[in-house]
Amino acid sequence: MTVKYYPIVSIISGQERNTLSDQFLDEIRSELGWELVPVKSVEELKEEELRFILVQSGGSENAFLRIYDQISDKPCYILSTLHSNSLAASMEILSYMIDRGKKGAILHGDGKTVAKKLKALAQANEALKKLRGAKFGVIGDPSDWLIASMANEAVLKEKLGISLVNIPMSELEEEVAKETYEPNRWTEELLAKGYDKEQMEKAFYVYGGFRRLVDKYGLHGVTVRCFDLLTSVFTTGCLGLAILNADGVYGGCEGDIPSLISMAILGDLTDKPVFLCNPSRIDTINQEMVFAHCTLPINMPYEYELTTHYESGIGVAVAGSIPEGDMTIFKASGDLSRYFVKKGEIIANLREPSLCRSQIKIKLDDYSYFTTNPIHNHHLVVTGDEVEAVEEFFRLV
């Protein structure tokens, strides 16, 4: 990847600032493995979606003013070195932008710190590009118990450029009744598990129905009122959604639109499979929490087995084990007015009979959000620390 920047400097600054700036940029390059290239003109900088200004010294403010009107239509990010009064000038410049209602930030610190910020910004920008123009299918209405999990379609369209496609349950049921699906690496892998053949066929027919609707409407993701499938086609959507997610199409449960959009945001930010799950319990004595659900992207666990859907005892559900270690938990509200993101640690995978089938036990440093100000029920989990990328995404939004 190449990051382009526009360098500015005071005319009275000494030549040592060139050496110090080069050292700063080399540290960032070393951390990222990316190219950092100066642009020769403001016109070239305007072509970039992410606009970076390298402030090489104090007294650079007027050099910034001479170009600002030409680049003020998008957020501007200031690369600030540790030397030559770069930070002081950067703060003056950022204050100027903020006073005029513009967005921006200072990227300041050692090479590792700035590189992490640059990576998060690039992730956020790429995710926004993926989401613009994306369509998400809503099959049936949200489940009756999701009394707070509502979405504001107008806001989603305005802020993210996405749209919702309402699809009646009857259309999915018609597709499932065709009793066909296109085999792929995931269906072959699942068949090799040797689970009940009749139940597997039913689950694959649901997957085939999902896949055809995704292709028909050009969907980036889909959520389904899945409990209705228990009585209409006598199976569940768990396995179909698990395969769909491994296919690279976001698949969410229970007609939960905010969770589907949150799933897509987190997945597009990280390029990682996303586990949509329920908070199941908090152990206040040991400071641990359990999340669980009956579907899980097949490409997320390091091992898994097949069993029944928890509540109904029928169909095919995934009981998977996610790698232990750093994780990120996230949720955004249906109007994007607030979000929650936090780094934690997966410390165990469980197999308790009284919970949904894929179960993780995690450690967080604070659980108060879940009991005082939660954003609905379902939450989204990915492996690794992705907090900064999420935060940068919402600064752009």
Keywords:
about 400 residues, five-stranded parallel sheet, alpha/beta, six-stranded antiparallel β-barrel
Topology (elements, then pairings):
Blueprint: E1 2-8, H1 16-32, E2 35-38, H2 42-46, E3 51-55, H3 61-71, E4 76-80, H4 86-99, E5 104-108, H5 111-131, E6 135-139, H6 153-160, E7 163-167, H7 169-176, H8 185-191, H9 197-217, E8 221-224, H10 229-232, H11 238-246, E9 250-252, H12 257-270, E10 275-283, E11 288-293, E12 303-307, E13 317-321, E14 325-332, E15 339-350, E16 358-363, H13 368-372, E17 379-383, H14 387-396
Parallel strand pairs: 1-2, 1-3, 3-4, 4-5, 6-7, 6-8, 8-9
Antiparallel strand pairs: 10-11, 10-17, 11-16, 12-13, 14-15, 14-17, 15-16
Helix pairs in contact: 1-5, 5-12, 5-14, 7-9, 9-11
Q: Could you characterize the architecture of this molecule?
A:
It is a single chain. The protein is α/β, with parallel strands linked by helices. It folds into two domains: 2-109, Rossmann fold (3-Layer(aba) Sandwich), CATH 3.40.50; 135-396, no CATH class. The protein has 14 helices and 17 strands. It has helices at residues 16-32, 42-46, 61-71, 86-99, 111-131, 153-160, 169-176, 185-191, 197-217, 229-232, 238-246, 257-270, 368-372, 387-396; strands at residues 2-8, 35-38, 51-55, 76-80, 104-108, 135-139, 163-167, 221-224, 250-252, 275-283, 288-293, 303-307, 317-321, 325-332, 339-350, 358-363, 379-383. The strands form four sheets. Strands 10-11-16-15-14-17 form a six-stranded antiparallel β-barrel. It has a five-stranded parallel sheet with strand order 2-1-3-4-5, with helices on both faces. A hairpin with a 6-residue loop joins strand 14 and strand 15. The longest helix has 21 residues, at 111-131. It is elongated. The protein starts with a strand and ends with a helix. The mean pLDDT is 92.
